[in-house]
Predict the structure.
Amino acid sequence: MDDSISFISTVANKNTGEELLKVDSVLMQFGGLKALNNVDLSIKRGTIHGLIGPNGSGKSTMMNVLTGIYVPIAGNVLYAGQSVVGRTSSDIALSGIARTFQNVQLFCEMTAIQNILVGLHHTFKSSMVEIALNLPRYKKEEAEAHARAMALLKFVGLDDLANEEARNLPYGKQRLLEIARALALDPELFLLDEPAAGLTAPDIKELLRIIRKIRDSGITFILIEHHMDVVMSVCDTVSVLDFGQKIAEGKPAEVQADEKVIHVYLGT
């Protein structure tokens, strides 16, 4: 394995193919609207699992359930065999589930490396006194975090822009910066919510290269995406939602040829 990615995940090739995340009959309802209606999912380690469907089908609701923003009315979500239902978003993130959002959410007036360092705050063990007095443990942790942040920026090809404010980066590079910051959490499972939205063709090509590189380091993905060429080229398995229900699942080519899926996307 490339040494440049060995620091990202300690779970590379760990039980690849086994179930990492299980969504069991999840029901999420807002008033009379069932945004998720008894949905089941099984995400295998080391795979890229696509989640597609029309607008309003429940994709983003599922992401919010998986990351603790919403608590489902019924059903369960098991990550590495443990339920995440009712846990806080920060606790879930620190347990190994990272995500990005449809709209880039960076600290725009901070530099690229400062954005990554925010994602590394959980690695610091120093007390407030050690920080205030700049004692040896804090200085050591600060140096290690800076080195790790630079390695993450290099991984996504942004090391030359480390000291550039995030707001000055082209949109495609802002996407990559957001991915690098999420990687600072050492995730086993990475949720990407429409990462190709608004990107140019060269940016999408670079995004796919980075996604594959991360997957090859041992990290599992759930990918929400409207660009079907992206889904077809990078996903191992695809699940399709429509009006909160799973209507199809399988390999990308199988799903693309499914009559129910064709009807949902193209109509009769």
